[in-house]
Amino acid sequence: MKWLVLIPIIIFxxxxxxxIRKPLATxxxxxxxxxxxxxxxKHAEESASKxxxxxxxxxxxxxxxxxxxxxxxYKMTGKIKNKSEKYxxxxxxxxxxxxxxxxxxKNEIIGEGIADITCDIPPMQSRYIEENIIFSGLDxxxxxxxxxxxYYILELKGTEWFK
Length: 163
Hints:
The chain has helices spanning about 5-15, 20-50, and strands spanning about 60-65, 75-80, 85-100, 110-120, 125-135, 145-160. By secondary structure, the chain is an alpha+beta fold.
């Protein structure tokens, strides 16, 4: 945003020297066009990255949660396999749901957390992940209940894979 300082300077120069107003206006127009194009391309790439890899092309295995500290922070570990034949998996967003199981009763959801995992998994390969995830309200869970966790893929981002 430091470039915004240039705007008043350019206006001052254009006001003080009328013979360079047209070249300054042309340069400003070209700059605006270039910035618009760059922002459009960035937005188009971001949108395309979210549709390249399908949820069926991702396999989660050995996902485990371990308590990190007393404030509801857990460490999520496991393996992610990218079964896409064409695209590199660059990001995955997971929702983890923590359920409490009591004897003979239905599982009750007691916490949810979101993990944004930045990864670099080429097509048809796997990587082990380790990411912290926060479950608010789980810092006081004690007793003989067992905790069950479930995972849902919310969003995937894929990039072109170059061989």
